[in-house]
Design a protein that fits this description.
single chain, alpha/beta, 8-stranded mixed beta sheet, two-stranded antiparallel ribbon, globular, binds NADP nicotinamide-adenine-dinucleotide phosphate
């Protein structure tokens, strides 16, 4: 499969690196063609790895992964080009966070989400929100955390969610640990988990944890 991973931060490089290890073709997308971090990543990530602009990455991809800050996700996807997203699965792993005066702020929040913003702006893309509730090392290796903890998927398109569940399976999330929360509106709730996640990080002192939903029946 050909993936565009939009974002050269730790998340983009970690997801892109694992995808390349799994044998996929990956282009790490950036605002500029000659981003040194992306070029270095591509040199180290094997034969199927390349670096390019957001548009170059998305144009050749079958699946586009959004791994930039949630507040700039629309800008990255506009740079990628609507025509390069048409009909494609767009996997949004972003969180709409910023620290203002030392305080965490989410925007959008409660009445909207980045996942919904992306789906509205690119109605022909098949947006799936997932993986934003765990650290990027756990995203690609859930065995770092023992137990039957889960990963959430949200999105309007059932076949896109099925395809993303397959990808999650390649990362090590078996189907029974992929929790479908419904339409893309439920991106609100997974994006609003971030304050809890950050408090857990502060209290546990590390990022290798996840939420496990236990059912009574
Ligand atoms: N850290 C984690 O483990 C974790 C876990 C779950 C979710 N997330 C989420 O994953 C996303 C990526 O996080 P990250 O820390 O790896 O990266 P990041 O620092 O949030 O984002 C880096 C990327 O954002 C791009 N960017 C910055 N400003 C931009 C703008 N105005 N327009 C377009 N693109 C812009 C940069 O482009 P250039 O390459 O051109 O510089 C770069 O590729 C975030 O939404 C984060 O909340 C992170």
């Amino acid at each position: 499969m050909r993936y565009a991973v939009l974002g050269t931060g730790e998340v983009g490089r970690t997801l892109g690196g694992r995808l390349a290890e799994l044998g996929h073709e990956v282009t790490l997308g950036s605002r500029s063609k000659d981003n040194p971090t992306a070029l270095e990543w591509a040199r180290g990530a094997g034969a199927g790895a390349q670096a390019g602009t957001f548009a170059e990455a998305a144009s050749s991809a079958e699946v586009v992964v959004v791994a930039v800050g949630g507040r700039v996700a629309l800008m990255a996807l506009e740079a990628a080009g609507a025509e390069n997203l048409d009909g494609k699965v767009v996997v949004d792993v972003s969180n709409p966070m910023a620290f203002e005066d030392g305080e965490l702020r989410l925007s959008p929040v409660e009445s909207d989400s980045v996942g919904e913003q992306i789906q509205r702006a690119f109605p022909r893309a098949r947006v799936v929100k997932t993986l934003n509730t765990v650290n990027c090392k756990v995203m690609v290796d859930p065995s770092l955390v023992p137990g039957e903890h889960q990963i959430f998927v949200c999105g309007a398109d059932a076949s896109a969610k099925e395809q993303v569940s397959g990808l999650l399976g390649e990362f090590g999330w078996p189907p029974h640990r992929v929790l479908d929360l419904g339409g893309i509106r439920s991106a609100r709730s997974v994006e609003m988990l971030l304050p809890l996640w950050l408090d857990l990080l502060r209290n546990l002192g590390h990022a290798e944890f996840n939420i496990e939903v236990r059912r009574g029946h």
